[in-house]
Write a structure and sequence with these properties.
By secondary structure, this protein is α+β, with helices and mostly antiparallel strands. The protein contains three helices and six strands; from the N terminus they run αββββββαα. It has a domain of about 90 residues. Strands 4-1-2-3-6-5 form a six-stranded antiparallel sheet.
């Protein structure tokens, strides 16, 4: 049972690693985004460009609205025009503050480099490969 669980987790981790690496190398000239808003008004917004991923979670208080999901991709160059924000993202950033757009809510933001996501998600597949390469013990 433990072997099946480990194999399943290693496979899912490999899919995340490969997907993130594929996105990382293809995102230099565009910004991809995904937004999920639940019926209570709270939302999760994921944006990524140029090897950086930004997760923003907004918790709204007493804001009843319909839920929705949006996603897309748009051409992007950091600070290329007044309409596009100049995203000067540092390597690792976390902040939590009162939400400027939602009355009384809290907005938390986490920014990660894609290399960190690829590295962490590669650990289990590498452990599996190491176990397969290890010579088997001979029975006496």
């Amino acid at each position: 049972m433990k072997k099946k669980l480990f194999l399943t987790l290693a496979f899912l981790s490999l899919l995340i690693c490969a997907g993130c690496a594929w996105w990382w190398f293809g995102s230099s000239s565009r910004m991809d985004h995904f937004t999920w808003q639940n019926r209570g008004g709270s939302s999760l917004h994921v944006m990524g460009s140029g090897g950086k991923v930004m997760l923003t979670r907004t918790i709204a208080e007493g804001n009843a609205s319909d839920g929705q999901i949006t996603w897309g991709s748009m051409p992007y160059s950091a600070g290329g025009s007044k309409d596009q924000p100049d995203l000067q993202w540092t390597s690792f950033t976390y902040s939590s503050r009162p939400s400027p757009s939602k009355g009384g809510g809290i907005e938390s933001t986490l920014i990660l480099p894609a290399w960190a996501i690829v590295g962490v998600s590669a650990v289990l597949p590498l452990m599996w490969m190491g176990g397969k390469m290890k010579p088997k013990k001979k029975a006496h």
